[in-house]
């Protein structure tokens, strides 16, 4: 089985935010929720770097560890998914996540959190693959269709890579050899420490 | 947990490749290669060995490198990524629900929060509370209920006004609901999911979260009311309180220490409710209303303060509930009916009883027993 990973190449990301838009459109995520965001470091200063970040689908996922209703599960591909029928919107996964991935639609008054929403690696949820309910709750299940996450597939500079971690690492390694400089597998030491 | 080597496994691999690649492409890479060749050549001593050491140190080791505060050459890119790992924020155009620090790429506090909550906090709180229950059960088994030495006199005196009783039970009921729902969020995954299954527990936990979040602020109102109602009467009186402590509060040994309206134990519990309870409410409000831009770090700390202090308060509350119910004869009656038996008052709060029975009220004009005087029921 492949171990699915995201990798954002900071030397290529041009902060176009197309990954954010593509994700939002493909998955029809709730208003106010963005599963992916682009962060620019030293914005406006020579040497600025941009990184597109969403759920990294960590090996030892902190969200899974702290969820009081145990609504997370990890697929054979290493994807960290969750069951919205169980989620109570307590916010604990958001406290625990280093990447700020979990998002909550504001459901009612006083800032009450609705059921958590996050990047699924375009792999849907526990419902039947490609079903109406699955799409409604989690968005498109592209993985079941044999496709990769749309954010990475349509990245114009191919800065954002998604797929089998070994293949992704190989592509990135070749790039580093070609262009020189140091490799920066941003977030990998945090998300995939094994 | 993980060793550095383990952690950086993919990096190590790539770094090795980079090392090999750097050697290969040194002549091809316009910006990077020659600069490295220069600095690499200097220590090798190919004809430039005569250059003074100071001068060599002043030369820019790589293009783009800058001096840090200590005057050492640093790679600004390395600095950037180090700062990212340390939680340095950047700019993001995306509006999310992630609070004000959504520009932060890696927030490390969450892992500490996870380790503390799932580890020592849950362990100490869980076993600690069981320990308190065990101690109370053992005490009850050994000593039984503290009886009234001279039985009930049949005469009662007023102790708690209707307002006092209302504030007490209002706060008490909310406390029990908040404690049970809060404990469910901390221990339910391990204790209730095996019993109820995931779906049933999640349905219950959804209600538990809603009750906990919506009722919490109302508990705060109760704590505030308690502080205003009984604060002055609960100020510590050193002489009296020291004597009470020396006598073991009547729990240990035989004696019945003197006490005023509130004994030292009650005063301690009162200030735990007001101060610790107040802190629990304050930290709870930080978590309850996440729309004011609190950062994750703030919420992680607020949660830890909330759970640790709430558990400490719960331990005290168990003792209070025990003494106020089965632990001491005649106590519960006071908070239910508002009046206590004269013998209970003499035994547990003799100084207070002397006080209320010393000043005779004006003779009853209406024939009704004035408040404060013993009354037959």
TrEMBL record, chain A:
<keyword id="KW-0408">Iron</keyword>
<keyword id="KW-0813">Transport</keyword>
<keyword id="KW-0479">Metal-binding</keyword>
<feature type="domain" description="4Fe-4S ferredoxin-type">
    <location>
        <begin position="4"/>
        <end position="34"/>
    </location>
</feature>
<keyword id="KW-0249">Electron transport</keyword>
<keyword id="KW-0004">4Fe-4S</keyword>
<protein>
    <submittedName>
        <fullName>Formate dehydrogenase beta subunit</fullName>
    </submittedName>
</protein>
<dbReference type="InterPro" id="IPR000813">
    <property type="entry name" value="7Fe_ferredoxin"/>
</dbReference>
<dbReference type="Pfam" id="PF13247">
    <property type="entry name" value="Fer4_11"/>
</dbReference>
<dbReference type="InterPro" id="IPR017896">
    <property type="entry name" value="4Fe4S_Fe-S-bd"/>
</dbReference>
<feature type="domain" description="4Fe-4S ferredoxin-type">
    <location>
        <begin position="78"/>
        <end position="107"/>
    </location>
</feature>
<dbReference type="GO" id="GO:0046872">
    <property type="term" value="F:metal ion binding"/>
</dbReference>
<dbReference type="InterPro" id="IPR017900">
    <property type="entry name" value="4Fe4S_Fe_S_CS"/>
</dbReference>
<dbReference type="GO" id="GO:0009055">
    <property type="term" value="F:electron transfer activity"/>
</dbReference>
<dbReference type="GO" id="GO:0051539">
    <property type="term" value="F:4 iron, 4 sulfur cluster binding"/>
</dbReference>
<dbReference type="InterPro" id="IPR050954">
    <property type="entry name" value="ET_IronSulfur_Cluster-Binding"/>
</dbReference>
<keyword id="KW-0411">Iron-sulfur</keyword>
TrEMBL record, chain B:
<keyword id="KW-0472">Membrane</keyword>
<keyword id="KW-0249">Electron transport</keyword>
<feature type="transmembrane region" description="Helical">
    <location>
        <begin position="269"/>
        <end position="289"/>
    </location>
</feature>
<feature type="compositionally biased region" description="Low complexity">
    <location>
        <begin position="43"/>
        <end position="59"/>
    </location>
</feature>
<dbReference type="GO" id="GO:0009061">
    <property type="term" value="P:anaerobic respiration"/>
</dbReference>
<keyword id="KW-0812">Transmembrane</keyword>
<feature type="transmembrane region" description="Helical">
    <location>
        <begin position="214"/>
        <end position="231"/>
    </location>
</feature>
<feature type="transmembrane region" description="Helical">
    <location>
        <begin position="121"/>
        <end position="142"/>
    </location>
</feature>
<dbReference type="GO" id="GO:0022904">
    <property type="term" value="P:respiratory electron transport chain"/>
</dbReference>
<dbReference type="Pfam" id="PF01292">
    <property type="entry name" value="Ni_hydr_CYTB"/>
</dbReference>
<dbReference type="InterPro" id="IPR051817">
    <property type="entry name" value="FDH_cytochrome_b556_subunit"/>
</dbReference>
<dbReference type="GO" id="GO:0005886">
    <property type="term" value="C:plasma membrane"/>
</dbReference>
<comment type="similarity">
    <text>Belongs to the formate dehydrogenase gamma subunit family.</text>
</comment>
<dbReference type="InterPro" id="IPR006471">
    <property type="entry name" value="Formate_DH_gsu"/>
</dbReference>
<protein>
    <submittedName>
        <fullName>Formate dehydrogenase gamma subunit</fullName>
    </submittedName>
</protein>
<keyword id="KW-0408">Iron</keyword>
<keyword id="KW-1133">Transmembrane helix</keyword>
<keyword id="KW-1003">Cell membrane</keyword>
<keyword id="KW-0479">Metal-binding</keyword>
<feature type="domain" description="Cytochrome b561 bacterial/Ni-hydrogenase">
    <location>
        <begin position="159"/>
        <end position="338"/>
    </location>
</feature>
<feature type="transmembrane region" description="Helical">
    <location>
        <begin position="301"/>
        <end position="323"/>
    </location>
</feature>
<feature type="region of interest" description="Disordered">
    <location>
        <begin position="355"/>
        <end position="377"/>
    </location>
</feature>
